[in-house]
Amino acid sequence: MIRKMLKIMILVMVLISLCLNLFAQANREIKGVVKDQNGSLIANANVVLRNKKTGLERATQTDSSGEFRFVGLGQDEYEVIVTVDGFKKATIEVGNQSQIEVALEIEPFETITTIYSGSRQEELRESLNTKVDVITQAQIRDTGYETVGEVLRELPGVLTRRGSETGFSFSGAGEQIQGIASRQSLVLLDGFPVINARGIKSGVINLDRQSTARIEQIEVVKGAASALYGSDAIGGVINLITREPKRGLETSLTVSGGNFGRFDPRGEIGFRKNRWIGFFSIERHKNNGFDLTPSLPDTTGAGFHRYDFFGKLKYEFSSNFYLTGFADAKKTNVAGISLGEAGYQKDDVDETLQSYGLTANWNINSRAVAQMRGYFSRYDEIGKVFVLPNSRLPRGAQFPDENLFQRFGRLDASLLYVLGEKQMIQVGAEWNTDRYAGFNRLRNASGERADTSVIWAQDKIHITNWIALTLGFRFDNHSIFGSAISPKVGLNIRATDRINLRASWGRGFRAPDLGQLYYRFYNPTNLYQVFGNPNLAPEHSGSWQVGAEYSSTKKTYRFGVNFFRNDVRNLIEATNFGFVRSQAQAAAIFRMLGLNPSEYNVSLNRLLLIYTNSSNIFTQGVELDADIKLPKNFALSGAYTYLDARNKINGAYLSDRNKHQGFFKIAYDNPNLGFRANLRGTFLSKWIVGSVRGFGGNVVAPGFQLWDVYTAKSFKNFEFFTSVDNIFDNKDPNVGRVDQMGQPLPIYRSEAGRMYRFGVRLNLSRQ
Predict the structure, then answer these.
(1) Which residue, 41, 213, 233, 376, is most buried by CB atoms nearer than 10 A?
(2) What mean pLDDT is predicted for residues 154-159?
(3) Contact, 219 vs 132, CB < 8 A?
């Protein structure tokens, strides 16, 4: 590991040395200060300096004194764009000035226009060459939601199922981006991968275990992002960007609760003191679960309680060098009742997740910025199963514990260099290691491991001041599957001040994860077994995104459209080979797949599932979205997605995909009254749950709509809020229905029904 780190450091230093000698430095300087209308300084504001001649953009943030500074500039004309959530965007023509002052106006419905995840550097929304959706802290607050999974349900082209925190729905708990499943999408926390043994657990990152308390904004990159983010990003990236305080001291205490035994207290503190910047949060989340089949002993949604801690600390050694470290910890217990092979049983799972990151940023000079990062994350899961009365085993009998452990580490380094006034070049290197171990999980009880070494580069070229071309590639060297190259091309055209056009194309590569390769899972309570396949081939993808945005001159309304096409080749899925009645039958199946039957201990009279490269698929469609500011503090927003997702081989529509998805919101925000309210609706069309073996048909779940409402009233330093989710108590139509034998029909959508929440928040801050 140390040897790998030294190689990365040497590579970066060589690149730095080359770049520093390419160009003589210009000597012009532009600096300024950002304030609100009352004269209070605004820290952590996003500041972009744009060259009006070439279109090149540089980005920075204001410091604790609200100041920013750009050096090494030429004599071209520039403009400064400043954005902060909750304030109106400001654009200042610099001219020959060397120092400016920016006063921001309060604007309740203004949203962040500076985005990081599209190119791994800060840039204006109108400068993007790929589709990136953003949810701000204010937007998150005004949903009343406690988890990232809940918040993402209101984005076009993104799908997460409600109830995934506690439910065991047929549709699963994972997210989809433009119809691409969770396993092919990457979830990041401040640019670092979020883990929870997804390689074993169907590739799912449960976003209902990710709290919103620490989040400044959520950025969702659509389409293949492997050229920048690596193997798991062939469907897109969800980047959770954590908070930094904007004032000298910020504290918040929130207590909320509702039906189903929900209770969610949390405390937060942030500070800026001399060279130190810190943010810390501690939370507890509790839910008693729910049951949609009360005539049976099992629970539809398991109860849980979870403790979260997050801390981030930044120290500025100078204006050119700073270190940032963070620690993230979660401890969760989930308990529910399910039907197993021996009868009804109590499932009890303890999960612990710990993640630590350290980042060093060095502004070498006015044109070069270097970054080095280290990251380690560990996930531990211990599951217990207890037999309940009236089962076919003695009361209180316990199955062996099911243990699962993952360890993930990363070292990376990158360099950003401004080449002249028309190009911005980024280069980087990474080393990743991923390890799994666990009882009744893998072929090797001591665990399995995979390492990846990476180099990547990107060049953003400003052909004119209104056309920018981005070229990029990534080279992955996988310890099991060898090497792969993922290229990317992007184009941004500022047709007018109001119309922006963008287009991007990229290829993606995803190596099979360790679970798909080496899984050995014998379910101790149900009639199935799952095996990995070391003969799997990597998945490959291609993605097109073409879109446009129109904004009015006064930014009172905005319309966007995005056309997309994603192709995935060699898609890896767990193929169901049916019940195995003899060892000879099992051996024939393994030989057909090129596997050695002697390496697999098959249990008879159970379903046999084996991972295979089962199909080639595509997803294509269009996304529409709009925002409109109305008079008298009202605003409208909405989105619609049409999705066509099919198997290329037989043309069949893919399961768990909604062809139509819509969202509507009307909001009211009056700062003078300290009152906010909104009504939100989500619409989803029917979808295929799965096929029925032996009948040649599909099980189709009906479409539905959900309406939510949120209100908040401020009084001095207190804020009182309430929310009602699923106002009309919309549930799966099978709830309460039984078959001819008197047994409840299967539930395809684990909606708990109407959920309400009441809460109070105390905010204290000083400059």
Answers:
(1) 233
(2) 88
(3) yes
